[in-house]
Amino acid sequence: MPVNFVEARRKLLEDLKKMGYIKSDKVYKAMMQVPREEFVPDDLKLYAYEDRPLPIGYGQTISAPSIVAYMTELLDPNVGHKVLEIGTGSGYQAAVLAEIVAPKAAPREAWGHVWSIERIPELAEWARSNLERTGYSDRVTVVVGDGTLGLPDEAPFDRIIVTAAAPKVPEPLIEQLKPGGRLVIPVGDTWTQDLLLIIKKETGEIEEVPTIPVLFVPLIGKYGWDKEQWR
Ligand code: SAM
């Protein structure tokens, strides 16, 4: 029997709401709009609405839906925001963010934009094709490079989200955050990582709020891990 992906999606999101991962209507609606089955390899589509990370090749993963929901709630993006994501992977998290900052229902002038950086060129290309097929290519720009350097040409950003684990918060990302902006990033080693919410106050003062323990693949780059160091 063919799978009813929309029903499976609704059921998963209802569960994530009951468990407290989804708190707001905006995150629920955004995740209801984005077809996660289009952002996983063909042979894993059946598992798209199980709450778990899935392999996407090159040793990388698409994060579990509960983590995407939790990080998006912490980030608190709004219509019109300029968002930077480090770690495009499949493009799924970027699409969820685009639904919130640039909803189709809003006039185009009010749209924000998502820039997403991926270090593995083949994954960036796959993410671009996923985003194109699902209708997000005018709201998300995928860039190949070392995201630990940020994206100085497009800075400053209202929101920055890092979807790989860093040894410490990369300084360029703090610099490229607007006053009043929020940065969400997992920090730690292979065994223990804390998901941090960094708030840059209007005065420029930085507040760091640890939230939940998480497990991500490494952020590899100038202000991240180098491959040999990660253990
Ligand atoms: N957000 C993704 C999604 O929705 O599918 C999942 C991201 S996956 C957990 C982490 C990604 O970060 C991997 O694709 C990895 O190649 C990428 N990555 C690691 N270090 C990076 C860096 N310095 N710059 C850009 N991407 C990086």
What are the distinct ligands in this entry? S-adenosylmethionine
Q: Could you say which structural class the secondary elements and strand pairing correspond to?
A: alpha/beta
Q: So what's the oligomer here? A: single chain
Work out the radius of gyration.
16 Å
Unreliably modeled segments: none
Summarize model confidence as the mean pLDDT.
96
Q: What overall geometry do the principal axes of the alpha carbons give?
A: globular
Element string (H = helix, E = strand): HHEEHEHEHEEHEEE
User: How far apart are the termini?
Assistant: 44 Å
The largest sheet is: 7 strands, mixed
How many domains in all?
1
CATH topology assignment? Rossmann fold
**Count the helices. How many?**
6
Fourth CATH level, the homologous superfamily? Vaccinia Virus protein VP39
Taking strands numbered 1, 2, ... along the chain, how are they ordered across the largest sheet? 5-4-3-6-7-8-9
CATH architecture: 3-Layer(aba) Sandwich
Residues in β-strands, percent: 25-35%
CATH class: Alpha Beta
Give a count of the beta strands, DSSP E runs of length 2 or more: 9
Estimated helix fraction? 25-40%
